């Protein structure tokens, strides 16, 4: 059976505390000259927490921001406009646990002629126990992993993320928001891959870090495939560090109170946690770079299992196979 680095939410939360004291050697590399003028930036899960902070900061730096969310439309967008001082913000509905919503979202972007310069895959859920989606998968598996496979493949195949253009000096960048808690998680367990089964709080905490390892393995394989014949897009992964967000909103009441106390006292604000993501998204330091990993403002290696080519290929094949088996619109992927 798969396992993550942690199965106790308090231990997992406290582990992030020590990260705040590590040297952030790249922090000074992000300056006010790093701007998104003329760039289209997609952020999933942008109505709150880290995603919302990213929308505000990127719009403040001149970007046209597309906030992809399932809630708070248009309230979150109007608030982001006020905080950023920019009207270059739009909200689009996206429900990542519904396959038809993912297709409709990608189709609308194509129909509207949107070309994405930066795509930040930030959305995620942490339910306290297993929940089955309409297509039969566990919600955390679908939202935190398989929906990202669908989004990236659909956006690339319909050229909303155009990796074929030779006229734009700024190559597309795709950033996967991950967690350093993926370190030490088990290898992908294909006996349970995509299969629904019941679990409670401890397994939910373990699954969060485990699915981040799965996601990082996919991101590495996507980078390998996209850039096999030369650099076409920067596909990178980042852990923004411990963030004081509403990620524990579905935890049991007492546990939620304890975790919110820890988050409030020792975790970073979303606005501060957004800065290393902004750096990776726009800095010239990442021109021509792919399959890089940042832990906040620090270069780091991901878990060694993530880099094994055979594991990446197997994950890709099994992900596509699963996608086709549950999605009538998958077609030829």
Bulk shape:
globular
Uncertain ranges: none
Mean pLDDT: 89
Strand percentage: 5-15%
What is the terminal-to-terminal distance?
29 Å
Task: Summarize the structure in words.
By secondary structure, this protein is α/β, with parallel strands linked by helices. 41% of the residues lie in helices and 11% in strands. It contains 9 helices and 8 strands. An 8-stranded mixed β-sheet has the order 3-2-1-4-5-6-7-8, sandwiched between helices. Strand 5, helix 6 and strand 6 form a beta-alpha-beta unit. Helix 2 crosses helix 8. The longest helix has 26 residues. It is globular and about 50 Å long. The two termini are 29 Å apart.
Could you name the key traits of this structure?
333 residues, alpha/beta, 8-stranded mixed sheet, 9 helices, 8 strands, 41% helix
Give a concise summary:
With 333 residues, this protein is of the alpha/beta class. It contains nine helices and eight strands. It has an eight-stranded mixed beta sheet with strand order 3-2-1-4-5-6-7-8, sandwiched between helices.
